User: Fold this.
Amino acid sequence: MEKYIQLKNETFMPRLGMGTWFLGENPHTRESEKEALRTGIEAGMCLIDTAEMYGDGLSEQLIGQVIREYHRQSLFVVSKVLPNNAGRKRIKKSLDHTLKLLRTDYLDMYLLHWPGSIPLEETVMCMEEFVTEGKIRAWGVSNFDTDEMKKLMDVPNGDRCAVNQVLYHLGSRGIEYDLLPWQEKHQIPVMAYCPLAQAGSLRNDIINNKKLMCIAKKHGITVMQLMLAFVLHRESVIAIPRSKKKEHVLENAKVWDITLDKEDMEIINIEFPAPNRKIPLDIV
Ligand code: NDP
Assistant:
């Protein structure tokens, strides 16, 4: 599997990174969470995904304390602006605050967290200005379904959108019907969030599935690693699993060694089929 994907702006983005939702919020676990992030970076997961929304800046602050220990150019840092802040009046303040908390002077990728009421033209114009100023290297969106992506393409410079970050995991394959092929056609990679199905009943259905357990056993991996290998099997997909535990981070970083074969995919397709009709985008 390729470890990097080439973006439209010719730069390369790692295909496996670390999510950070909820990280930094509990003062008692901050140190172990920092250790988990360091472990991930040192194991090659140099893409870090955060957002101004996470812990109201606490996640960005935690990441800032860790990434200052590394060469900035060796990392790929992604953050997101809230839709209400994505207009000319507020976006600069948001980005400056994000950069301050992250202790850096640029982001590798800045995303609009979900579609909001501020005209896309305005957000795109601001994003492009940040690129020109060197404050961000690229920009993208999140939680945009196919129709919203098509509208974005109609906005001046909307086609410079580098990624769309959406929910995608083995048990939620709605994007495979239209959004994922559409993005592949337009060279806009999918950043898969919740690649481990986060929590809840669906995750239990996946991790307790006997057939998946057999595939995992065959490869000498866990079902969680199988879930990651599944999303990365598609070469236009980037995955950002989140873990506050070093041992889990190390497991996640080893996913490159796993190659799912035709037989594995056939079993997965029977147990957790992709839909054969349009399903609205799944969100958390
Ligand atoms: P994930 O699907 O990544 O699941 C996280 C859970 O999986 C945690 O409970 C973690 O527990 C557990 N876990 C991680 N690795 C392992 C492992 N190897 N073995 C067993 N358990 C494991 O959930 P998220 O919702 O956090 O999604 C990932 C990231 O995507 C977010 O952190 C965030 O950065 C982004 N995101 C973006 C959204 C958007 O709207 N754009 C929405 C939601 C998420 P433990 O810590 O104990 O390991």
In short: The domain at 4-271 is CATH 3.20.20.100 (TIM Barrel). The mean pLDDT is 96. DSSP finds eleven helices and ten strands in the chain.
